[in-house]
Write a structure and sequence with these properties.
The structure holds 2 protein chains of 2 kinds. By secondary structure, chain A is mostly helical. Chain A has helices at 25-47, 52-59, 62-93, 98-113, 116-124, 143-146, 149-175, 178-186, 191-221, 233-244, 247-276, 281-284, and strands at residues 132-135, 139-142. Chain A contains 12 helices and 2 strands, in the order H-H-H-H-H-E-E-H-H-H-H-H-H-H. The chains are: A mainly alpha, B alpha/beta.
């Protein structure tokens, strides 16, 4: 093979040429077809028996606004309860203690294995099992007074959520390199301190996307609490249409609010993700 | 008469069928730098990990500074110590891992201060000043606020050494500290370890860096299939090994 001091000839100079823009005919066609279909659906709804004036009137009605506030309050509290339970149960599940392990597995089995609506009804009707509750000699109360729709919904949604969140948390903790736990032990940390200071902060990075997902699910799951009289937005919408028979209009109102809330939550999740991505190469480079 | 800082007596350890350590006994004296060499699977890393109880031994005993590790004698029986007691015993040793294991969500300085502040409960201001001094000692004074992902492997390992030193251990354990490094970064870590050895720190070093062993180690221990095959002054073991298998290993490594 001969190696010359200069570059070989016969290769054209491409340095001044640009790559031409493609016109994607098929994409344009597909987009046009979709627009036509959507327009047809919109027209059908516009011509259908929906009184849109009712939708706009009830969208900001006081009862509906109270409903969406109640929905958010319940979603936040139940999710908080779910996360606390989830972390505790995940730690128990990964502990070397067989008793803690079994209790955690049993909890997940029970509350993941039965429908959420059934659990809500059970909590709400707890008074049928225990007419009075309390600590003997210290404090007792009638269960019907204690088990309000709010408390029943909170316990039902939160405890159910905990069962799912524990699995998310467990996955997050398992995703952290075993060397991290050893390094924590090597500087004299016990199991719980290592979990709190070293493992969980790193697990958070992994669990926030699925937790965001779970929270969005929770916002919508609160609608199930309508069956136990918790005044969330769907329940209040139902009460209105029982009176004025504008069923579809009020369901659309409730749907709009759910969509709005979920649309706001998505960018919030991204902010949280960035906060916990501290120290990873992606944001620092 | 001085006593050994570490006394390992008849220690055995199996992982399932695999016998990692077979009846190993060894003393490490205060101020001594001991290098453990041998092929992978020879038990040298396991022995090191047993000294700070990341691996729990099956039988035998290890004494650190006169204190029996992991168990206590009670009416003729051995009872395991609680997790808290084991954590307290670990404070006497500092560990440097092959893969650094820095905490990625904490800066270099926070990695160093974590143990003294959180575990030993010392005042943060005082610890921060000491940590800054340690970073200067390992040549990383300007990297205090860098996250591990922003540091090279050699820099990360030097932070890891500083993190271990911050606990003021009486014994430093190094588990192949340069094996995960690019060749051009090995020197900076070894020179920090050399400086540490010269300061009088007692060190147990599992390493493949025979040059370091020859230059710095007071004693070299060659392990093979879970036993100590040969041990002696670095110049003797590395220069004129008695055992055929030591000779074969050295010929293969160099």
């Amino acid at each position: 093979m001969r190696v010359g001091p200069t570059l070989a000839e016969d290769f054209p100079d491409l340095s001044q040429m640009q790559i031409a823009r493609e016109i994607h005919w098929r994409r344009w066609l597909a987009a046009a077809a979709i627009v036509v279909v959507l327009a047809a659906i919109a027209r059908a709804f516009a011509a259908g028996q929906i009184e849109w004036s009712y939708v706009s009137r009830f969208l900001t009605a006081k009862v509906i606004l109270e409903g969406i506030v109640n929905t958010m309050v319940m979603a936040v509290f139940a999710m908080a309860l779910g996360i606390i339970l989830g972390v505790v149960v995940a730690i128990m599940r990964l502990s070397p203690n067989p008793v803690l392990k079994s209790v955690a597995a049993g909890y997940t089995w029970l509350f993941r294995g039965t429908p959420l609506i059934l659990q809500l009804l059970l909590w709400f009707n707890l008074a049928l099992v225990f007419p009075t509750i309390g600590v003997p000699g210290l404090w007792t109360a009638r269960a019907v007074d204690v088990m309000t729709p709010f408390l029943a919904a909170l316990l039902g949604l939160g405890i159910n959520q905990g069962a799912y969140t524990s699995e998310v948390m467990r996955a997050g903790m398992l995703s952290v390199d075993a060397g991290q736990y050893e390094a924590a032990q090597a500087i004299g940390m016990g199991r719980l301190r290592a979990l709190r200071r070293i493992i969980l902060p790193q697990a958070m990075r992994v669990v926030i996307p699925p937790l965001g997902n779970e929270f969005i699910g929770m916002v919508k799951a609160t609608s199930l609490a309508s069956v136990i009289q918790y005044p969330e937005v769907l329940h209040n919408a139902e009460n209105i249409y029982y009176a004025n028979s504008r069923v579809i209009e009020l369901l659309i109102v409730a749907g709009c609010w759910y969509l709005l809330v979920v649309s706001i939550l998505t960018p919030l999740q991204m902010l949280l993700e960035r906060r916990f991505a501290r120290g990873t190469a992606r944001i620092n480079r | 008469m001085t006593k050994p800082l570490v006394a390992i007596r008849s220690v055995s350890k199996a992982f399932g069928e695999f016998q990692a350590l077979k009846n190993v006994s060894l003393d490490v004296w205060p101020g001594e730098v001991l290098c453990l060499i041998g092929a992978s699977g020879s038990g040298k890393t396991t022995l090191l990990r047993c000294v700070n109880q990341l691996t729990v031994i099956d039988s035998g005993g290890i004494w650190l500074d006169g204190e029996l590790l992991g168990v206590r004698e009670e009416r003729g029986k051995l009872r395991r110590l609680t997790e808290r007691q084991i954590a307290r015993q670990r404070l006497k040793t500092g560990m440097v891992f092959q893969r650094f294991n820095l905490f990625p969500h904490k800066t270099a300085l926070e990695n160093i201060t974590e143990g003294p502040v959180q575990v030993q409960g010392r005042p943060p201001d005082e610890v921060r000043a000491e940590a800054t001094e340690l970073l200067r000692r390992v040549g990383l004074a300007t990297k205090a606020d860098s996250y591990p992902s922003q540091l090279s492997g050699g820099q990360q390992q030097r932070v890891a050494i500083a993190r271990a030193l911050a606990m003021k251990p009486m014994l430093m354990l190094f588990d192949e500290p340069t094996s995960a490094l690019d060749p051009e970064l090995v020197g900076e870590v070894l020179s920090v370890m050399k400086e540490l050895a010269q300061s009088g720190m007692t060190m147990m070093v599992v390493t493949h860096e025979l040059g370091f062993a020859r230059e710095v180690a007071d004693r070299v221990v060659y392990m093979d299939h879970g036993v100590i095959l040969e041990s002696g002054r670095a110049a003797d073991v590395l220069g004129a090994p008695r055992e055929a298998r030591t000779q074969a290993f050295l010929a293969a490594v160099i």
